[in-house]
Structure formats: structure tokens, C-alpha cells
Amino acid sequence: MLPVDLTTAKTHIVIPARFKSTRLPGKPLLSIHGKPMILWVAEKAQAAHFADDMCIATDDERIAQVCTDAGFEVVMTSSEHVSGTDRLAEVAALKGWAEHDIIVNMQGDEPLVPPLLLEQVKTLLVADSDSVMATLCEPIDDYETFMRPSVVKVVSQHSESRQRALYFSRAPIPCERDVVLANERDKQPPKNAYRHLGLYAYRVSLLQQFVHWPQTPLEVLESLEQLRVLENGGHIAIAAAACQLPAGVDTQEDLDRLNAMSLADFQNPAES
């Protein structure tokens, strides 16, 4: 069992922000209601009062300048990282955080994340001392979403006291035989189909190991970094999200949708 000193362990929120994006170059700096998206995300992180501190991790001077000018702490990181988890590991090393501390990874392209979910994923990890990482999921209720490769699915193991992830995939899992054999118009996702949400909490001790593990076969195949943890025997605690996670920004259409919202609705979405 991994020892956790609850009297000294701290919680840090880190927001990885890259300028390069295949579909939306410079995404963190794109404007939403007249303000760069990364600043909206940082303000959400500040509203998560359970954390001891927060910072933005980037490899781009333009992003760093915008965030620094707005009064947020920035940690400059390497441009060579193959995953966001590797970038967080560098931040933990540069900051000298204790191995029992917890890092909450807040995505820089999800400006509507309810702080409640950030706290939930941290609490989930604290409650399962044998897990090195925690994340969230939500039910999938339509077949089209279930079949879409861009939607990451997760299957998990349940017991009376905990729930842990068994596997993550872009494929439609779990596969229900009767659904596969049904007529197209009758197909429905399995009752236990869940979409993985990209919110994570990590123990610093995991990140210290993660950077020394080579990319694993399934991680490379699925392009899902959390599989590196499972393939190296780590446990990932998981639970259904306590509230809905509004969609983030992946495309220009997503950006347009957020800008089309009234400022009041954007600042106070119903989901939070």
C-alpha cells in the first residue's frame, strides 16, 4: 500500500497548454468573449478552493506571456514531451513537490469545467490509497457516440468499496453481442457503456515512475497515455462524474459555439 501522509500532502492544479494543435493552431490563445481561452481555464482553476496552488505548464513564450501578464504562475517545460502526463512530471520535478502530493490535471481547452469535478477526482484518489491515478466517466446514451473513435470509452471493475478502470479504448467497448447482431435502426449502446472524461488526478510518485517507462504497445496503438499506467500494473480509480462536463474546444465550430453563448451563460453554465 502506498503511504499517504494526509497531514502534509498538498494538492496542485496544473494546466498543460501547447500552442501547436492540428485542428486549431494557437488554441490556448484563441478568444472567447474577448479573452484568451487559457485565462478562462485558469480562472476556473482559481475557483477550486480545495487546491493549495495552481500553475500553467507550457512550452510556448506567447502563452507564458499572456498568463504571466494576467497574474498567473507559469512553468516553462520542454517541447519534446509525447504526452501531457510527461509534461506534468517535469513540472513536479521542477517544483520539487513531495511524492505523496496530488496533481490535478486540468485541460487547457475546457473552459467550462465545473470546479466540483476537479475536487471529485482529487477526493477519489485520496480515498483509494492503492491507486496511483484517478479519473472520471459519464454514461453514453446514444449509439452514434458509442461508435465514434474520437470518444474514448472505458470499462471498469466494481466492488463494494471502489471502482477501478480495466481498459480504455477508442473502440466501442464493452461489446454486447445482441446489439452487434441487431438491425442498425435497433442498435443501442450497452447499459454499462461509459465515456471517459479527460480529468485526472495523479500522485507525484506515479509521475516520477511514468517518465522512465517507455511508451507501451497499447498506448501507442490507441494513442491513450493512461494505458501506459495500466500496462505497468498501476491502478486507476474511476467514478461517474458528479455533474455534466460541458464540451471543450476541439474545432472552430466548438469555439464559435462558446462565443455564441451569452457572457452570463458562459460564466455560469447550468452544469456547474
Automatic annotation (TrEMBL):
Lineage: Bacteria, Pseudomonadati, Pseudomonadota, Gammaproteobacteria, Moraxellales
GO molecular function, one term: 3-deoxy-manno-octulosonate cytidylyltransferase activity
Enzyme class per UniProt: transferase
Full protein name: 3-deoxy-manno-octulosonate cytidylyltransferase
InterPro entries tied to this protein: Cytidylyl_trans, KdsB, Nucleotide-diphossugar_trans
Family of the protein in this entry: Belongs to the KdsB family.
NCBIfam families (UniProt xref): kdsB (TIGR00466), PRK05450.1-3 (NF003950), PRK05450.1-5 (NF003952), PRK13368.1 (NF009905)
Gene that produces this protein: kdsB
Subcellular location: Cytoplasm
Keywords, sorted A to Z: Cytoplasm, Lipopolysaccharide biosynthesis, Nucleotidyltransferase, Transferase
Entry annotated with the keyword Nucleotide-binding: no
Source organism per UniProt: Psychrobacter namhaensis
